[in-house]
Amino acid sequence: MTFDDSLEQFSDYLHQQDRSRMTVKNYLHDLGQFARWFEQTNGRPPAPATITPTDVKEYRAYMQNVKGSRPATVNRRLRSLRAFCRWAVEAGLIAADPTAGIREVRQQRLGPKALDRTEVYRLTRTLEERLQWALNTRGRLSGHAVRAARDMALVMLLLHTGLRVSELVALKLSDVEMSERKGSLTVAGKGNKQRQTPLNTDARKALQQWLEVRPKVESQALFVGRGGVPLGTRGVQAVLADLGERAQVEGLHPHVLRHTFATRYLEANPGDLVGLAAILGHESLETLRIYTVPNSDRLANKVEKLAMSDE
After folding, report:
1. Class of the 117-303 domain?
2. Which fold has domain 3-90?
3. pTM of the model as a whole
4. Does residue 255 have an active-site annotation?
5. Is 144 in the active site?
6. pLDDT (tens digit, 9 = 90+) per residue, 177-195?
7. If DSSP states are collapsed to H, E and C, what string results for the chain?
């Protein structure tokens, strides 16, 4: 059986397994890449029975060393080839799977995406500028000013408390306790476990501004939108997407702000995983160790500092 014939059968099999069109398309694309490499390397097109473990290893090395493909790309194409070969065994086209025992490329685990100091500055400045414009041109209780104060408060809470977006939208007015010098939130975390999260000066200031102009509505939700309807997860995501575009902060979403808080906390309090776990609502310290690993942007910045300056 030719490789093209086997690909048609494999495609039919994937559709029978209720795989999406995009999934099937990606599998066939990856296998087409392998077929082109095989023919260029061996001088003949592949067939299921002619693929050997050495071919798979050499294809992996080719993707890494010649093409310079990223580990994620190499591993995805290996998985596509593995899925095809396993199917070929089940279909009786080959006796043994040539991909068996061949490992994927190891990927260095980097820390999650977090905003750097410049991005935090641009985001904060965008919020402040937007609020000042609304206050100066539309008035303190205008719709523009109310929305600007709300958005400032929700971003400052995410940035300075590390709340999950689900925890943020679940907050009630009664969950907030503030005085001039301190404040805290009663947060219902995963598994309905409550915790007290401290509020620093920036979070308290922004939250106080919002509470002063928050519409008097029936809902007790801390953050509300038009018509007094509680702001939901999608609403928060939409607010952040708009702010990210305005502030030129790429990929801004709630989890990025949670990661940013965790990263900044450990920079200010090196090694204090216990304190961070209590604030973020994590029971296991192991899940927080990823914040001790620099992400790709931070690694790039550290390497850039080693460059010799012409000045």
Report:
1. mainly alpha
2. DNA polymerase; domain 1 (1.10.150)
3. 0.60
4. yes
5. no
6. 998 889 999 998 777 789 9
7. CCHHHHHHHHHHHHHHCCCCHHHHHHHHHHHHHHHHHHHHHHCCCCCHHHCCHHHHHHHHHHHHHHCCCCHHHHHHHHHHHHHHHHHHHHCCCCCCCCCCCCCCCCCCCCCCCCCCHHHHHHHHHHHHHHHHHHHHHCCCCCHHHHHHHHHHHHHHHHHHHCCCHHHHHCCEHHHEEECCCCEEEEEECHHHCEEEEECCHHHHHHHHHHHHHCCCCCCCECCECHHHCECCHHHHHHHHHHHHHHHCCCCCCHHHHHHHHHHHHHHHCCCCHHHHHHHHCCCCCHHHHHHHCCCHHHHHHHHHCCCCCCC
**Which residue, chain included where needed, has tokens 């000013």?**
145
Q: Taking Cα atoms as reference points, which of 101, 93, 33 lies closest to residue 63?
A: 33
Which residue among 190, 226, 234, 289 is the active-site one?
Answer: 190
Choose the catalytic residue: 258, 259, 264, 265.
Answer: 258
Which long-range contacts link 184-188 to residues 24+ away (Cβ below 8 Å)? 185/157, 185/161, 187/163, 187/281
Q: Check if 164 is active-site.
A: yes
Which of 130, 164, 204, 259 is catalytic? The answer is 164
pLDDT digits (tens, 9 = 90+) for 44-84: 999 999 999 999 999 999 999 998 888 889 999 999 999 99
- Out of 25, 67, 255, 302, which one is annotated catalytic? 255
Kindly list the domain boundaries of the chain, sorted by start residue.
3-90, 117-303
Q: Which residue has the tokens 């519409």?
A: 215
33's CB contacts (< 8 A; 6+ apart) are 77
125 tagged catalytic:
no
Q: Does 13 qualify as catalytic in the annotation?
A: no
